[in-house]
Amino acid sequence: MQVVILNSEEEIRAYASEHILARVETGALSVLGVATGSSPLPIYEGIEQRWTPAVGSLTAFALDEYVGLQPSHPESYHAVIDREVTQRLKLDPKKVHVPDGTAANVDEVCEHYEDLIKEAGGIDLQILGIGATGHIGFNEPTSSFASRTRIKTLTPQTRRDNARFFNSIEEVPRHCLTQGLGTIMEARELLLVAMGTTKAEAVAQAIEGPLTSMCPGSLLQMHPRATVILDRQAASHLKLVDYYNYVFNNRPTK
Ligand code: GLP
């Protein structure tokens, strides 16, 4: 795992978007896994600023969606992905996929979503944030490491954390559809971004804690190509900060 600790949101914007654009330009990235939440926003802004036609032809798969919110609801992940990803990156909406959280048959929707990812050739790079509970996607603590796209129940903590996007906590759905941890692990590359002290403990557990479903983010330790990009605050509970900085400053040029 590569841990990159940067000084500001501006540095994160530049580093993460250049990382992705470099992959797009070499043709190594044509299917992008996208995440909602505030953490990945600088990445989308950075790519928008450096947009190329190759970006516009990307296929995208969202990590998750609330159950029961109409796609027209401004906080449904359909709407968020449309605003922050499809429009900014000028993607073809037909090539941007978000699981349907309003469908009557949830299992069918989840199975179909897995099939769509397979048909697209798998996800080349998955962008991730991390929740204060250590969740990635909406895989809350004790999610199976082998899980596939399915319906999950949000923890009270996640509902409280996400209430800031709604008028009140009562409006935050209790259920979601999320790519499973097994699904996420099949992406060829993972790029997790976290900022701020509220993420420091989850980040420390994910990077330096034991591999445990109590912190789903710790599964990144098992991925052969995972990069975690942090600001100083999100990195503040890590023990090996000096080592990560040393590795980054002496990174191989080849
Ligand atoms: C949300 C999303 C996650 C996201 C996380 C953190 O609930 N489902 O994919 O990574 O919570 O969000 P934020 O970046 O806003 O802190």
TrEMBL record:
Q: What is its EC number?
A: 3.5.99.6
The record's listing under CDD domains reads: GlcN6P_deaminase (cd01399)
The yes or no answer to whether the keyword Hydrolase is present is: yes
Give any Gene Ontology cellular component.
Answer: cytoplasm
UniProt cross-references to NCBIfam families, sorted A to Z: nagB, PRK00443.1-4
What the entry lists under InterPro entries is as follows: Glc/Gal-6P_isomerase (IPR006148), Glucosamine6P_isomerase (IPR004547), NagB/RpiA_transferase-like (IPR037171)
Q: Which domain of life is it from?
A: Bacteria
Alphabetical list of Pfam families matching this protein = Glucosamine_iso
Show the SUPFAM superfamilies listed in the entry. NagB/RpiA/CoA transferase-like (SSF100950)
Into which EC class is this enzyme placed? hydrolase
Q: What are the BP-aspect GO terms?
A: carbohydrate metabolic process; glucosamine catabolic process; N-acetylglucosamine catabolic process; N-acetylneuraminate catabolic process
Natural source organism: Subtercola boreus
Name of the protein described by the UniProt record: Glucosamine-6-phosphate deaminase
Q: Name one GO molecular function term.
A: identical protein binding
Positions of the Glucosamine/galactosamine-6-phosphate isomerase domain: 19-222
Q: Does the keyword Transferase apply?
A: no
Keywords (alphabetical) are: Carbohydrate metabolism, Hydrolase
